[in-house]
Batch of 2 targets.
Target 1
Amino acid sequence: MHGRIKIKSTAQQEEEKRKEREKKLKIYVSARDTCFSKVTRVLLIQVVSNHQVLFSFLCGLCVSYLHSMFLLDTHCQRKEGILDEEALQVTQQLLSSNPDFATLWNYRREILMHLETVKEKDEVQKIYEAELAFLESCLKLNPKSYGSWHHRCWVSARLPRPDWSRELSLCDRCLSLDDRNFHCWDYRRMVVKVSGVPVAQELGFTDRLIGSNFSNYSSWHYRSTLLPLLHPESPESPSPSHEPPQPSPSHSPQTQSHRVCEEQLLKEYELVQNAFFTDPNDQSAWFYYRWLLGRAEREEMISCVYVSRDEERVAVAFSRPVNAQSVSLLLVLDGQPQKVEWKSVHPRFKHSPVCICDLPPGTISDITNEHNLTVHWTEKYTHRDCALYTGRTESWCRDSATDQELFRSELSVEKTSVLQSELQSCNQLLELEPLNKWCLLTIVLLMRALDPLGYEKETLAHFQTLKEVDPMRSAYYSDLCSKFIIENTVLKMEYAEVRVFSITDKNLTTLCHLDQLLLVTHINLSSNQLQQLPPQFAMLQCLEVLEVDNNRIENLEGVYHLPKLEEVLLKNNKISALADLQPLASCPKLRRLDLRGNPVTQAANIESELTALLPSVTDLLL
Amino acid sequence: MAAEELPSEFDVVILGTGLPESVVAAACSRVGQRVLHLDRRSYYAANWASFTFNGLLSWIQQYQEEPQPKEVQDWSSLLDEGEELVYLSNPDSASISNLQVFCFTSEEDEEEAQSSDLPNPTEEKAVNEDTDVKPSADSNEEATTEKQETVGGAEEEQLQVTPTEGEEQDTDKPHLSTAQSQLEPTRKRITYAHLVKEGRRFNIDLVSKLMYSRGSLVDLLIKSNVSRYAEFKNVTRILTYRNGNVEQVPCSRADVFASRQLSVVEKRKLMRFLTSCMEETEEHQAYSGRPYLEFLCDQKLGDNLQHFLLHSIAMVTEDTPIEEGLAATRHFLRSLGRYGNTPFLFPLYGLGEIPQCFCRMCAVFGGIYCLRHSVDCLVVDKDTNRCKAVIDNRGQRISCSHFVVEDSYVGKKAAAPRRLLSRAVLITDGSVLPSDSDQQVSMVTIPPVAARYPVVKMVELCPSTMTCIPGTYLVHLTCQSAGSAYEDLAPVVTRCFHTPDSPDQENRPSVLWCVYFNMVDGSGVELEGHGLPSNVYVCSGLDSTLGHEYAIRQAELIFQKILPEEDFCPPAPNPEDIIYDGENPSTPAGEEDEDGAGEEGKREQSQTQE
């Protein structure tokens, strides 16, 4: 007859499990002790890693652990350490239950290196192969163990006859379980590099991963590194792009190296469109798309040289921020190299797109003299000349920059036709998903790249929608929108060739591209949402009149050493303390200041204190 | 066969080893009921069984034979005061009907046939084997004999084509290889002899179903730990037959992304529809009572998507109301992605494994199993109208408190004609949609090929499901009957495959062998009643749906009627947590009819079915 089955009670099971755990712990602890008795003193000190202490805490063993450690520490009798196979065994036992024990991996490496010296090559191969098999079991235990992956890297590199295809298939298995295991991605990169897997095969690998789940930054990113290698941009493309083996000094190697030939680009556009049409809320595809649309780096050059006779000052604007202290600039005045000190416009930032220097007093002060200046940017082999004619108090030399050069490079160097068709498909998606923020944002960027002024109205409308559908990031959109408005205004100013810059009542929240305003004499930013005039504001070296009525300005940090500034109109802002006005004291020509509607005007004795702070001001409105 | 007598007292006696009966058996046994589980057949799982090729052939043969009328024995001598006998009906051969077998591959190894160079005997033999076998139920046809020479004209043609077909292929090959694929010459023609020789590697299901990854069967297998007795494979793709072609249906996110036949706009529309239909919306309510198709049309999805959504994802017909259509769509989508890119699982070695797994669970908890053992009649207490005991076919009286029986053992008293399912099982030499991998498990939905034809569900199994031999695919077709299985399904077969009826479809996979039959669709049979005592419950057998929801719900209902207080299939403990009290710790291995003797025991047993 059948015996009826009884099931152990939960208490019984618990008890058994507890016993089992205790047994395991005992084995672990004794193994660890044996191991430490073999490890040299140096290793012991390493043991006091946070991790290990934490682990011991978890085991409820902290006291006995520290005790045994100090004991061992004192009678550490092995100066040379025992580097035998028994130690290998013991550490293996320990690591297989806790693969994150970094000290033991180190010890193991020492043992293995020792064994390498005493064993035959075949035997070494066998030992290392066993090591790899052991590591595999550790990775099963914890697929994200730093120690195991690092050790595997080390072993693979020392293996006399490595089997890279096996390693690759291990990575593939690992990634199929968790396609975001970055340890595995790292290791895989190493394997691919060492074993020289063909790029095409790797591209196929990303195809596979993206096919199974396209929400994977790692795969998309990997793709972006492979494509330029496999399908480099063809040499006859419009931009002078093809890289000869030795890059010519005038171009930085990054400028073209990440571009992809057009035929392949079109395929990629199709792939990524499939992804974002399938799931427009998945950002990984959108990011890849942004990369595809491209980002040209601007040529490094001196975009403007300005010289002022009154201040005997030279200001130089660059196409990208430079370190004023270390940039290798050479100023040649009338054929004579000058020894001058280049500095940034504001002490708060070292890197700035504008540098200034003061010439020795009297060098150019005589208005009847004509001077020729040349600024050499020696490390970039580029220079710019500027002539200061008789009777002129100032002079400048600059490119009449086009919108293309100024801002479009931030998105793309692709052909307009390609961008146009991309814009079309994004608009198609927007019709289906009118509230998708990624789609809206990409459309905005595409419009910027195509025709910033022509699409201005639509761009602003899209920004409005973006702020509504993604209120969490409304400040980001406001800033981005401010940036675009400023860019457009700069462009319009360029076309009009004036030195007046005005953006009023446009909800500006931030200021940028101030380096483009080096020559502006009159700026009107009234009725916006600005909270400060940032240090970059000090780049406006020619500024005479500053109008910022009706903002929320609390901070005037950037109104600093502006040599020509005469008028500051700050009506209805949030200046609350006298100290906030301190920067104005550095502007020598300031004579008119309007502070009406600011909290600071309510303070006692404000008028006298202001007069003391700003003696040059003759026209003070409170 | 156990010669000794069975114990004479049980809590629950269950007759029939189909899926619902087996689940009830496991559930009862699990909570400590003494269970006796019988089946008059020599194999487990009744009409849910899987057979080897040879097993299937003998199953076919068995149904072709006249059922011998069984003499009714009078067991009234075993009655006590106040009791009466209720006889169960004869084994019900009508649950399978319209059996027709076709063999389109050459009978013998081609080499042998060629070397012997004797075409006549080969042909003759082919005729014998290929004969259209009609069961006697079809009385308008001539009586079935062992060797049927007389068949309808159309079929005769087929038969003659069969042997020549091999030659035709041979002569065609050069054309083919130059014309299109280079695969063609390497494809080795599998002969009938080869099928028979390798027959034990087939596991051919009588029913064709799939397990929804979040369906009640999967949930039950997990909950009860019965899943440890079986292994499963993901159905790898969903296909559909459309405009004369077999196409892949993109249903998961990855599929939609990778699909080449959808435009990006269609992709967006599809994804949006799938996401939106997971939640009940006002829009859905507005369509209440109207067909799902109407709702789909108004979504402006386009023909492509509409076809996929209606036929392949909801798998409903054009007049299904929206509530049902949406429920089916949600069921599909909920199951998606749990184990893979399709919502379905298939058990390795065939669906017949599943009832056996539950039987094993029952046996582990002490249930007793006897095959080739039936119940003749019930002993009913006249006063209470309850079944007190059963009398088995050997005249042993076995008392029980509850009796569960498969409906085929109960007399046909239902006046309404029962609905039928049409089934076809094909062994083919290639996939309906070849792809990179030749180990695809495909679910194919086939909308009506013409007006008045039923919707057909087709499952194509690859060798790695352990249901067929390498180089072949096992194809199951199922639909609700409109006519006989052959009438319903042959048009689909000729469209999707290369058969002698469709000689122009050279590029489609060839059918090597096939069988058509009808099964009774048991859905709608009441659990109780049938003029039976109140503690007798009838399991209705198969239903036409793709999933197992019906059978599992039925088993749970029966269990709740038997043991309203008990938990249905609580998790079985780990083997190491089981204490065997006192007696012989292992289950007796000597008894042939008892299950639970471990993995090997069970496999052996399923092999003894042959």
Target 2
Amino acid sequence: MKSETLLTKSETRSSAKNNLELIMKNNLIFAVTLMLLTSMSAKAQCNSEGLSNECIPKLTTGFNFLKSYKIDGVGGTKDRVEYSYVFTKGTQYLINICAPSQPTDGVLVTLYDSQRNKVASSKVNDQFVSAIAFPCNATGIYYIQYTFDGSTSYCAGSALGFKR
Amino acid sequence: MKKVLFAVLTLLIASCSGNKKTDEQAFLENLKADNAPLSAESSAVISEILQQIPSPLEIAVLLKQSGKKFNPDLLNSPDNLSRYNSNYKKALNLGIYGADLGYTNIYEQSKDGLNYIEAIKRLADGLSIGQFFDIETIGRLATNSKNLDSLLLMTTRNFNDINSYLQSQGRSNLSVLLLTGGWLEALHITTGVAANDPNNAVLQEKIGEQKVILNNIVSLLGFYKDSDQNIAGLLNDMENLKRIYDKVNITYTYKESTFEIVNGVMVIKDNSTTTIDITRDTVDEIRNTINEIRNKVIS
């Protein structure tokens, strides 16, 4: 009876050790998976603020910085990002785009007037242009719309500058 | 010895957490005083309209490039700073001083600029947004005209950051006042310069086209008229101004634009036009009304 009890205790100890190893193994797998997922999610995150900051010094010489715009298509779930600004007659505006891959990673900007007439688009003959200069001849509210056309990152930044 | 060390550490931690609590309390009290409850839809509309308001810097550049001389008499003296004790006055005059700083920077008047930077920092501190101004760097940039581009960039970014921050903190009312102050000052300077050059068509047009922005400002102030008596009063003044602006006619004609690519940049040729009909009498009326509103704000 005594020896049976001892054996049972030994078995119990062995089983507990196995359980502990299993738990540790599971925890390790969980931790590694979590690390991988976190790293993948960090990679997938859109650093539109960083990209818009990159765009500011890329404004052509002579242009004064006005605004920076974040363009985050949330991995393709948003099909457009829109901002608006009052442009005034006699002032020239420059809008540029900075994307993770050159030149704009399928991000294009389209400018609409207050009546939603199309004024300009940065896609010409299937080519993406990374900057639009707009010498404004008609004061009013303009809509600066960013869309994605074959983009892989759905992520970019933009800056708006002006000069007289 | 251990007991003494423990007691000292406990006191240190208690004193640190005590200070933090005071700061947090001050911040929350500030927040509570500013906060007007708005629906998500209203907040989104406010945010959209706010981003449209042009920078006062655009007018300063126009004045400089059209050969107008620097006129400090048109600006709000930084000596008036002590008058601004309420958040309403602080936010409006932060916008006014911001426009004045832009004007002095464009004209490279570093001595005046430094006074405005100091006043701006103090107003911003009073609104718990002083962290956005690195006064040492701005001051250093202001003392050398070679740094003009960096100075303009830094101050514009600081004001943009403040506006984003205020909106994210549910304090859009202050953002509205800040931008209203900046716009008011820019229009005051323009009408002041135009008074000495009454036949200047470009300046008259510039004054006339402010109708577009005034409409935005009236819309923005309207969101707060029931929750803030000061803003209701300001809105009333702006509506009076709007009645004068009703005499200004802006005619827009759309015509499809053309473009060419120059050094990788798409250069648009805007074929649309606006014509702005404004009489000299209307310009005078606008100037007088703007002066009245501004005097209330800066006094």
